[in-house]
Amino acid sequence: MAGSIQSKPIVVVGAGICGVSTALWLQRYECDVILIDKDAPGQAASYGNAGLIAQWAVAPTATPGLWHEAPRMLLDKDSALFAKWSYLPKMIPWLTQFLLNSQTVRANKIAQALPNLVVDAVDQHRALVAGTGVEDRINDSKLRYIYPTLRDYENDAYSWGLKRAAGFKPRVITGPEIQELEPIVGPKMTCMVELDGQGHIHNPGDYVARLAQVFTERGGRFIAAEVKDFERDGNKISKVHTTQGSFACSRVVITSGIGSKPLMARLGLSVPLEAERGYHVLFKRPSILPNHPMMAAGKFGITPMGDVLRCAGTVELGGTHLGPSSGPIALIRKFVRDAFPTLEYLSTEEWMGFRPSTPDSLPLIGEIDQSGIFTCFGHQHIGLTAGPKSGRMIADMISGRRVNYDMAAYDPNRFLR
Ligand SMILES: Cc1cc2nc3c(=O)[nH]c(=O)nc-3n(C[C@H](O)[C@H](O)[C@H](O)COP(=O)(O)OP(=O)(O)OC[C@H]3O[C@@H](n4cnc5c(N)ncnc54)[C@H](O)[C@@H]3O)c2cc1C
Fold first, then answer.
1. pLDDT single digits (tens) 182-194
2. Closest C-alpha among 193, 68, 77 to residue 142
């Protein structure tokens, strides 16, 4: 096995779900791994997401029709798409590519590459945590979409068609059965669509932190430092420079979420990565919880997490430097008021995070030429779902194992040539 014989360690930069998964799999393959993060593990996007293991998420983010829908959505306060207008001009190159990818032919092609990443995600999480003591954090569940009307569900025909093509069998529920199954749902939601065989995680940030702890308990090194730069020996990566000193390495894996873009720039590589900003509202000590996670008409996830109801989602185009906006939070709160009229709670908490998103909805998983520089970032809305499998793919590649998937669609070199 090639992985155990490298002379210098492998450095993994970023301890979100992608980095921790990569580090754990490499460790399992007996590689010497250093995991580096400027913050504690599980604090960035991996902290505040909806906790959904979204095996059903087989549709690209740019779907057919978005080209003419997006301007209307940006102006409609009931739509889950928002913008920081001052930032939009900076996004034009990314947005152009993104919207071009919403053409039916391109969207369909992208959609062929998504199921591989997500449809066995619950099993991939279970494989990741096997023997760690964290097994009980993974919950099997159904997923229930709630819509104001049947018509709203029918308007989502493209993404439901892709789900059916991937083998999912939605059950459409109308009438009083909605309240029988989910007493939290009020009369304004007249359509519920149920999918079996999904999963979710309570407190995903803590889940990632716990897995990072397992990595160190097993002898892995975690360094709390910011990576500033890299050094190459010819084409090959040789050193990582951080605020806590420099580390010689045989390979580096960039798993830095939205922070991957400036790091790739230090390596002389320009990648089209933008933040799709997302928000959550926690409703603490709720009087009632849904029995299964839900999706609010495709706008955000609604996940029961013990003594908290977490509502997380929406998309705001706005980079990483500007502060949070009130619109997405107001949208979440209004939907919750309308959908769950009897819900009471003690208090709420709000959060904003950055989804690392590419214009083609696909992550960058692979090696840059034969440089020893590996990438595992760009997982947009599905990083919690696909992180464990993506990290395993990278570990398989590095350790010389056979990767049983067509990796061409995720090849990082697609943006660099
Ligand atoms: C509101 C919202 C809801 C979501 N819901 C879901 C969901 O239900 N299911 C799902 O599958 N996905 C969901 N997502 C997406 C998911 O959260 C992300 O795709 C995923 O967390 C990305 O993980 P990551 O490991 O790539 O990045 P991150 O979790 O962002 O981790 C990157 C790490 O790199 C570190 N880093 C960056 N730069 C440096 C540097 N220079 N030096 C050292 N360290 C560095 C950061 O500190 C950070 O810890 C959601 C996202 C949002 C915002």
1. 999 999 999 999 9
2. 193
